Amino acid sequence: MQVSENKRYNLHRHARLSVAPMMDWTDRHCRFLHRQLSRETLLYTEMVTSPALVRGGAMHLLAHDVSEHPVALQLGGSDPVELAQAARIGTEAGYDEINLNCGCPSDRVQSGTFGAVLMRDAARVADCVSAMGAAVDVPVTVKCRIGVDEQDSEEVLPEFLARIIAAGCDRVTIHARKAWLKGLSPKENRDVPPLDYDLVMRMKQLFPHLHISINGGVETLDQALDLLDMGLDGVMIGRAAYHQPADILAQADRRVFGQDEDSNAEAAVMAMLPYIEAHLTVGGRLNQITRHMLGLFSGRPGARAWRRTLSEGAVRPGAGPELVLAALSHVTALAPVAKAV
Fold first, then answer.
1. Which residues are designated catalytic?
2. Which single residue of 70, 164, 335, 338 could bond 9 by disulfide (Cβ 3.0 to 4.6 Å)?
3. What was the pLDDT predicted at 27?
4. Mind listing the pLDDT tens digit for each residue in 27-83?
5. Contacts from 182-188 at CB under 8 Å and sequence distance 24+?
């Protein structure tokens, strides 16, 4: 594991655009790829449970490359003491932010009394935030839903936010849907409950000093910019950033953060080659990385051949960077390749 050099980032600024924590997707290889497309966007780990770190000693879950920064560790848990210990472990590993998951609706998470079920216990969440904040010297943030099941979100969400603010949280990401803990699968909970962007906007008006990012249903960079223009402080994008990473991230540094240059997918591929070589050298497999690269050329001529070449070839023994270059040869360059970031 490589640890950051205690560099302080303006995370409120970087949180203007972030990539959502997604189980089985936003692993360290995915984050390294995303960082080649955007220097500025805030990246998040998959959710790591506090018991896994504190009781299980699963330090491998914290592995990351120094180039991923700014990067936040998302924790799942509900015990203030254990979460404080896990937060301390995370900061010692070099993470720039600790985020508490109060939004995941899966059965496994519910059985551990954390995730979206914590929307029912704002006092406990406040205790967790307070304990983590006392244990670390990096920001402690929360990702939540607008409510769960039959809760009245207009009543529940303001109380929830007021409690975590009082506990020391000054930045929150709100997934603008309820979570239905019974009757809907985790997949259905990402799509079926209706979005309520207006409620999130009202929370910004009610708590003007709270940095609020919105999550849920954002599919394009244009849509993210519209939401920022409406007065929200940040936008978190999930599946679109994963499946079409260049569409979301290649222009983000310029359009969201005011930088001078865009990146592009070709440059990102070339920047990945040394990383791939290093991964293979220590016994890793090519498909562990390339599975995150399949959507890089989404919508472009040759994208299907790119995906097919990687999908079929990366699982074969001995597959390496030459396969990635062969896949890239199927894609017609539309513009000069920019510098890798």
1. 104
2. 70
3. 98
4. 999 999 999 999 999 999 999 999 999 999 999 999 999 999 999 999 999 999 999
5. 182/149, 184/105, 186/104, 186/105, 186/106
